[in-house]
């Protein structure tokens, strides 16, 4: 079974979206994030921006490969599983990762019931993701290839043949080229360079 080495995410914060139900207002936001510190910063900002709101419910997911996913859903005082999990459900439905979705609620005086809350938070999250630009990215492995200048033609020929992406290079008497390779191709590319005489390759990221 071939491993999946691509994922979907958003490139920038979504515009603010609004869903209303019986005078309650639900403001939805989506942010690209890769750490809990970023999540906290966005939540702190929204709590200042919406300081009169009742609830700041959210869900997030980090990780580029499914086996590495880390996620959390928070109801922030709403009935259990009526807010955070419906929001997280939209992250799963849109198949995005490295994303935070926050839905801020202003209570309108009428209780919505658990079913109403689930629908409102799910819809707020859905609208935020629909307003976002979703892109597909690949999971890449970076390698450093080091060699003497006399082997330049050999190395560059392979890079050209395999259409490898050079992200940095130092071409002097002793040369180093940093390449970025899609995860699914990484083992094969490593073996090609690893078998060449006087050419060294090492993995830079885990």
From TrEMBL:
Residues in the signal sequence: none
Span of domain Impact N-terminal: 22-129
Source domain of life is Bacteria
Q: What protein family does this chain belong to? A: Belongs to the IMPACT family.
Q: Which PANTHER family match?
A: IMPACT FAMILY MEMBER YIGZ, IMPACT-RELATED
Q: What is this protein called?
A: YigZ family protein
Which organism is this entry from?
Psychroserpens algicola
